[in-house]
Specification:
The chain has 50 residues and is mainly α. It is built from two helices and no strands. Helices cover 68% and strands 0% of the residues. The radius of gyration is 17 Å and the shape is rod-shaped. The two termini are 30 Å apart.
Length: 50
């Protein structure tokens, strides 16, 4: 039987995921700014969104 908090928990998890997806490009851009030569030479790889 589903509890009454299950829909709220799903909304919270979805919201947290949206925040993660929003922050990921900012983090990657910051890394690119810190280490541009390694990325331009093909040494750096972007971190996948988890």
């Amino acid at each position: 039987m589903a509890t009454t908090s299950e829909p709220a928990g799903r909304r919270t998890a979805f919201g947290n995921r949206l925040v993660d997806v929003r922050l990921w490009p900012r983090e990657e851009l910051a890394r690119l700014r810190e280490e541009p030569p390694s990325f331009l030479s093909g040494g750096g790889r972007l971190r996948p969104v988890s």
